[in-house]
Amino acid sequence: xxxxxxxxxxxxxxxxxxxxxxxxxxxxxxxxxxxxxxxxxxxxxxxxxxxxxxxxxxxxxxxxxxxxxxxxxxxxxxxxxxxxxxxxxxxxxxxxxxxxxxxxxxxxxxxxxxxxxxxxxxxxxxxxxxxxxxxxxxxxxxxxxxxxxxxxxxxxxxxxxxxxxxxxxxxxxxxxxxxxx
Length: 181
What we know:
Layout: E1 8-9, E2 14-19, E3 24-27, E4 32-39, E5 42-47, E6 52-56, H1 81-88, E7 106-113, E8 119-125, H2 135-147, E9 154-159, H3 172-177
Parallel strand pairs: 8-9
Antiparallel strand pairs: 1-4, 2-3, 2-6, 4-5, 5-6, 7-8
């Protein structure tokens, strides 16, 4: 066992997603994990065997954390597209501490008026590789984040592969931070 292992005992059963395969697993109450990172609305944990798992913020209490609260947006305030982009910026890759926006995975994000004056947000996003098992997981996280923005009635998130993602899609600050410049 790793000498730096600092386990946290799960206080209840919860679901997690394997990283990078994207398979759902059940973590049992009393099991032990170690928090690797917590960014936005997800928590990445490591098992004693070294497997990485992603927990949704709704399960933060299972590892002794409070749910993240985004109090920067007034729930009664007017709709603002910048809040949608901010919400997407809070969706992080579970393996590295970088948001999907900074990674350049979001290709398109547009507002469309729906029936009866409803507001639909359409998003095209990609993954760093076509075989990435986290595609549906991150797509779902992006949809949930945007749907929580006041004034958004519907969200459609599509995974696209054209154009293929490249390192040049990352923000310059992210490439610098990751040592890729």
